[in-house]
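Practice set, problem 2.
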Amino acid sequence: MAALRWLTPRRRSATARSVLAGEASAEAARKSSQEAPGTAPEEPPFPVLGDDRAAAFFDLDNTVMQGAAIFHFGRGLYKRKFFETRDLAKFAWQQAWFRLAGVEDPEHMQDVRDSALSIVKGHRVAELETIGEEIYDEYMADRIWPGTRALAQAHLDAGQRVWLVTAAPVEIAQVIARRLGLTGALGTVAESVDGVYTGKLVGEPLHGPAKAEAVRALAAAEGLDLSRCAAYSDSHNDIPMLSLVGHPYAINPDAKLRRHAREQDWRLRDYRTGRKAAKVGIPAAAGVGAVAGGTAAAIALSRRRR
């Protein structure tokens, strides 16, 4: 009948013709889909439910949490009179710089780590672990990105293990991982003797290529297939870690990582502005010394301190 109406000499309004064209197009599309079911490509579900050889690795600063964990930790230590006001001003400036720049400058982060090591030197490990729990509640809990938290939960719901991988002290990272219900954390290990911090590191900071080596070591120990694993980060410094897995994701990426991710066709998600990149994915979720440092950090998870 629709075809007969088009043959009549009576003029029809543009609106009516548009509606008719739309209905005809929809009908043709419906018939086409019925005639050739399953021809439209569909992205396989991810994470894969029950894949126990897959895991997810999440950077912490600006990926899981706004800002840098070590800065928030320093703020909590100042409150407990671990250091003086001039040191707090330094921490505040470092935090402001980090949040404005949105990237990890190796020299800048080294300065931060040196400051933190000097502050905790002589203190007991158990003391800092207890304080870390308090500081998480005071300064960190409200800074977790809900979107990234949902991504981690999707992996957990699929029965997969989820690890934080960060240059932050491992004690802080472990607190955050535990509070978020994650499997565990890889972090920078500060040396301690008889339960007291010496002010030195074990190996190197867990940064850049060291993260990739830590993930590689952990995957070997846990029997994981890295081609089935996922990794998430905001920083171009973590490209080695992201390149190691089969499912890399750029979260709140800096300019260099965003450019690299687009070139490599990696998925992106940006929670800072609410906008999403074209390839979102996850439908279930709304140099020298690097090798030694990364491996040391991975092994230190299960090694008793001297």
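Problem 2, part (b): a different protein.
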Amino acid sequence: MPTTTPPAAPAFTDVTASDSALRRFLHGLPGVDTVGLEARAASLGTRSIKTTAKAYAIDLAISMVDLTTLEGADTPGKVRALGAKAVHPDPSDRTAPTTAAVCVYPDMVAAAKEAVAGSGVLVASVATAFPAGRAALDVKLADVRDAVAAGADEIDMVIDRGAFLAGRYLKVYDEIVAVKEASGAARLKVIFETGELSTYDNIRRASWLGMLAGADFIKTSTGKVAVNATPANTLLMLEAVRDFRAQTGVQVGVKPAGGIRTTKDAVKFLVLVNETAGADWLDNHWFRFGASSLLNDLLMQRQKLATGRYSGPDYVTVD
């Protein structure tokens, strides 16, 4: 299985040698055909799948969910309940797969680890002054180290969008490299907040910048702004990881987050993965959904396929 390598894969070492070199490389990437990108995303979203394939897709989507709570009112009790749901999403049907991970703030990592112990469910923690990322680098790194020390298996960091939009690409690159080092053995997901990057060209540049810096995953959004994951921005990021692997042999995951609420939405994204990056990414090691409400709809649709009846929201636990 392909894995990530240290920052700046050998084929691209020179492009990260200076701010000007990195700028030339990122601005030399092919421009995005907005009409073509959105038309392809819309076309793939119309694909229908049969019942047997739908059952497989639902279970696959469940296994890809990072079950998430990122609220100021989070408590250890709420996190433990979320962890229990991640381990047994449908208490009435133990054949339902576990979710990929539980995603929480750093101070809730210990409670999450306790709740999922022995299950194979991972604990992801947002860090680096999530969601705005407006803090000094030493504060961000302390945030990461706290999460790792508490047992986080994965770190979800936010880039400095202000620096990126100002064209200070090497600052963003160096910060990702530093966070990667502080993360140790934990896998690193780099969040771009695509809704704040304004253009598809910027999303393509951010994708390559994150991968050059050693991201294990590139992630669309925090879920805290108006525009989060869309089929078009996710398609663009899937093209980027596909092309990056073709040129370097390094495989990087993709995580759309925010706004994916229904089984129909999830299936559309799985079609995007299969048709763009390929079957190698149809695994929760390489593709995730950042979601809170999506899991309930997946479970209701799963119950409907199994029983022929639509159970409704009262038959699944409330997050």
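Answer key, part (b): The longest strand covers residues 122-126. Strands lie at 65-68, 101-104, 122-126, 154-158, 187-191, 217-219, 253-255, 289-291.
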